[in-house]
Write a structure and sequence with these properties.
With about 80 residues, the chain is mostly helical. About 35% of the residues lie in helices and about 0% in strands. The protein contains four helices and no strands. The longest helix has 10 residues. It is flat, with a radius of gyration of 18 Å.
Length: about 80
């Protein structure tokens, strides 16, 4: 999703919600019914606005991120 967000940030676009009745070009996946789920099964993540100037900055920010940094360190040195 981050790649999509970065790619879409190159364009001047507006995203607009269209209710199902008005969305005449919806595909099967957007119309597929979903079983109801309990609130405890839902996990939410807070997203912050991305102000990324380069791919290198993006990678550096991910390495310094408290959630992702440990993954990078593990991938670089699994024995630590």
């Amino acid at each position: 999703m981050i790649r999509w967000a970065l790619k879409l940030s190159e364009f001047n676009i507006e995203c607009e919600h269209r209710p199902g009745v008005q969305n005449v070009v919806a595909d099967l996946l957007s119309r597929n019914p979903v079983d109801s789920i309990e609130g405890s099964q839902i996990s939410c993540a807070a997203l912050r606005a991305l102000a990324i100037n380069s791919r290198e900055q993006f990678i550096r920010d991910q390495r310094e991120d408290p959630e992702l940094g440990h993954i990078y360190r593990y991938l670089e040195n699994p024995d630590d």
